[in-house]
Amino acid sequence: MRPALALALLATTLACSVFAVPAQAQRARVFVASYGSDSNPCTFGSPCKTFQAAVNAVAAGGEVTAIDSAGFLPVTISKSVTITSPAGTEAGIAAAPGNNAITIESGAGTVVLRGLTIDGGGTANYGIVAIAGNDVEIYDCAVHNFATAGIEMSAVSAMNVVISNTVVSGVNNNDPNNPNLGIDLATNGGTITATLDKVTADYNNYGLQAYAFNGNLQLLISNSHIDNSSGLALAVAGSGSNSQSSVTLKNVTLNQSPVGIFEDGFSTVWLSHVTQSTVAGFTTEGGLVYQMTNNLTYGDGTNHIMGSLGGGAAITSWPATF
Amino acid sequence: MRFKFPFALMSAALACALSAIPAQAQRARVFVASYGSDTNPCTFGSPCKTFQAAVNAVAAGGEVTAIDSAGFQPVNITKSVTITSPAGVEAGIAAASGGNAITIGAGAGTVVLRGLTLDGAGSANFGIHATAGTDIEIYDCAVRNFAVDGISISSAAAMSVVISNTIATDSNNMGEGNGINLVTNGGPMIATLDQVIVDNNEGGIEVLGGSGAMEVSLSNSHIDNNARAMEISGSSAILQNVTLNQSFHGIALEGNATVWLSQVTQTAAPGFNNIDGLSFSGTGNTAFGDNTNHFDGGLGEGASVGMWASQ
Q1: Could you report the predicted ipTM of this complex, rounded to two decimals?
Q2: Torsion-angle region of A34 (φ positive above 0: left; ψ -120 to 50: alpha; else: beta)
């Protein structure tokens, strides 16, 4: 079965009941702890119990820090904020079926998530989903078992994305009509500039998707591994001359999937030290597959695309300049 | 043929209400601590004392977290679960003679092990012994001093394996121990090993496609000072940026094995015992290289390296 692009268009509905925000000035630094209470002011001495209470309490651009290891429940973010679980603390979010762990929506500016462990139990929708925000940075996180996507960006305006030292493993739903995605970067009226480094996307249907649905998208992914994707490892697609996907891969392994790199129109991919594996005994379809038109792939002589090239697919020389 | 784009209009379902956990249901998140007790409910405030009690108490797919540094004793896993020792906490398992540190068996689905220190004192059998599971992920672990294998994973059904930033050392008892041993036993296995150090074992990494296709991607790793660095049989292996530092044998292909090599360095130096860098035994072996490899131990009888074209 041919792979098809997956698109999740997110409606910007806000149905969250928001805790009442006190009229006094908000703090720039708040805390959550296992022993906290949401009726507290979220100080270090009197921390709150949930990420949501802390995010509501903190000033825009402030910082929420987990004091100790616990689950701090799903959170919706509509401001600039940093949520940090420092080294030594295991702060997590377990999301309920059909829900999300972290939702970033209108009002968000710079959102930084660090050190969080997010689990969807196989039935929650999104681990991290951003339908707004101009700078979303994800460091040292673990995102497991989400049914729709582990990390989803849907940019309605210009968005900068960083994902570093993060693992996203999914449920590998093996459903070609509704594939679950490890990481999905999509433009939906805006643009995305994304940097992914030391990322592992494992056991998803689509490992990584870069989809310029409406607006240009540029992605650099380095030192990463996209493994055991039941559908395809990397999907790159654009929609037109103003919605093009440009993806550069540097030192990336795409280990075992039916399709390695799938370019679906208005896509340009640059490859350096990329290894895409396809071996006997496993389902193989193509190392590089082109659909639609205006696809281009460059290689610098350091890559190994082991699967066959799909009809029309070709790798052009990307010369070193010095 | 045009592709159709499956189009899912998703509303951002927001989970703002606290979800109450029924008292009798298992928790999704449990804790162990040095001061815990296995008669506790394994909450953060009343943690348990052993990994086993916590794994028994946690809901399937849940998470067991170590609050502080201690030994939490061997554990048998028959469900999906994550066991985590966060940075700054040294949660370990000292396995008893003849036993295992972590056993993963029927019932396991996705099992994630992070930050654990496993020690066999030379007399325990396996650090991690998995004979079931659909997705086994091992991060930031240290596995040492086991008599049989540090990490042994066999797949009776389709299995995905990730081992990252992990060391497997000092399993060198009586000429049998492997640092890492991956075997298919009825189901296929896809394994990704990255930033792995396998040192001072009898066998470094053994990959056996016994019954079911086996494919291993090994990158940014070091297999050092083992009697046999890698043995590959009935399997496909891709090595990228790997050092095989000083062993009797480098990479041994032992029948129906295919290996692809890029930026692999295998060392053989005067004053040390060396037999061969790459050897073939049995039939149906193939090796490919892309001119970025160095095999100082040379090729054993029958071994040859074909061209692995680069683009």
Answers
A1: 0.85
A2: alpha
